[in-house]
Design a protein that fits this description.
386 residues; alpha/beta; eleven-stranded mixed beta sheet; two-stranded antiparallel ribbon; globular
């Protein structure tokens, strides 16, 4: 069947990447530069949230209150590199592509706005906080970045968030410049962008619907000025509370970063199935009752004990449990028309995994000393067509 839009494929030759314990061979495959044509819609795209919080200078995310948590949780130590640097990013891209990951959803923080606000309030600015945006820079500078796609998730939870229009406009121009990159994720030819939290975004815009609409309209306008198609703009929300249609009116879709079940913290870890319950309820609830399309999320784990987090912890999934979870989200996408993203040719099925590298919180599919490549191998088994 003839494609309506151009399908660009990039042939990738065999390459060798050191994993830290054994070599990883990336076999030949073809990568879609953008989702287009009816043949592509038969594929389910796999996206993974990417957190660039792993810098080397102290204090860092591995040393919590003076104690290096890697000594107590050695299984979480990553195999491809422990810090966000260029060699690690290059290996991560190659490995993700090899195992069927289609794109990284890279968390991007308005660090400058946060610094100005804290300085005005005479509050301490966290050291090295600017390194939170190294993920985007390293991806853009990687010689391997043609292998998978990427997209931006604007993180606006406290203490982050853009409040004034001038800063919003300036930041939108930066985002739209990045969207011009040939590896930026496009669905139906449209670049995909997400606001991390809908509730926080509304608060940062005085809970005024007209102001929320103004901000989103500004982003669309700046994208057009940059020569881009109208972006698909999404908002983050809980899987257990569907936003009202008027709250979602300026947006194109809804999705979820992560939802921790509201359970009492205890010494014994809850089973992984308990962690999966809110996600599965969200797939079904949004599919039936939401005014906008919903991109399902799938938790790879949640156990934030390394950071002394007060919330409950859950067992990491076994291969059998992870396989069942992947099959479950794939089935939901096949059954419900409101899950995924619309295109002129039909619906693009896709979902997001929490996460590639939330090593301390427990959302991990990156290869580690504990699980090895288990989660990636299972993704390739269940979902990859490469």
């Amino acid at each position: 069947m003839k494609h309506t839009l151009t399908l660009l494929t990039v042939a990738v030759s065999v390459c060798l990447v050191s994993s830290g314990s054994s070599p990883v061979v990336a076999e030949d495959f073809a990568v879609n530069a953008q989702v287009s044509g009816s043949d592509d819609l038969s594929r389910c795209l796999v996206g993974v949230h990417y957190f660039a919080g792993w810098w080397k200078p102290l204090p860092n995310k591995y040393v919590h209150h003076g104690t290096d948590w890697r000594k107590d949780y050695p299984g979480r130590v990553p195999l491809l590199g422990q810090y966000n640097d260029q060699p690690t990013m290059d290996k991560e891209i190659v490995t993700a592509a090899r195992f069927g990951v289609d794109f990284f959803q890279i968390l991007w923080y308005p660090v400058d706005d946060m610094k100005r606000r804290l300085a005005a309030e005479e509050r301490e600015i966290p050291p090295h906080v600017e390194k939170l945006n190294e993920g985007l820079r390293l991806f853009l500078e990687s010689p391997e970045n043609h292998r998978i796609r990427f997209t931006i998730e604007y993180v606006n939870h406290a203490p982050f968030g853009i409040v004034d229009d001038a800063s919003w406009e300036n930041t939108c121009r930066k985002w739209c410049d990045v969207m011009r990159h040939p590896s930026y994720l496009k669905v139906g030819g449209r670049p995909v962008f997400k606001v991390h939290g809908l509730h926080a975004f509304r608060l940062q815009n005085r809970e005024a619907p007209a102001q929320v609409r103004h901000r989103i309209t500004m982003l669309r306008s700046i994208a057009r000025q940059a020569g881009l198609p109208d972006p698909l703009i999404g908002a983050g929300a809980s899987p257990l509370g569907i936003p009202l249609p008027e709250a979602l009116e300026p947006f194109d879709f809804v999705t979820t970063y992560m939802e921790v079940p509201r359970l009492e913290k205890r010494a014994e870890l809850y089973p992984y199935e308990k962690l999966l319950e809110p996600a599965e309820k969200g797939w079904k609830g949004y599919a039936k009752h939401c005014s906008k399309p919903y991109i399902p999320y799938l938790p790879a784990g949640w156990d934030p004990r390394p950071w002394k987090d007060p919330r409950p912890s859950f067992q990491f999934p076994t291969r059998r449990q992870w396989r069942a979870a992947l099959l479950s989200v794939r089935l939901a996408l096949e059954q419900h028309e409101n899950l995924g993203l619309p295109t002129p040719q039909g619906r693009q099925k896709l979902f997001l995994i929490y996460a590639w590298n939330e090593f301390a919180e427990g959302g991990i599919i990156a290869p580690t000393h504990g699980d090895g490549y288990m989660k990636l191998e299972t993704i390739k088994e269940i979902l990859s067509t490469r």
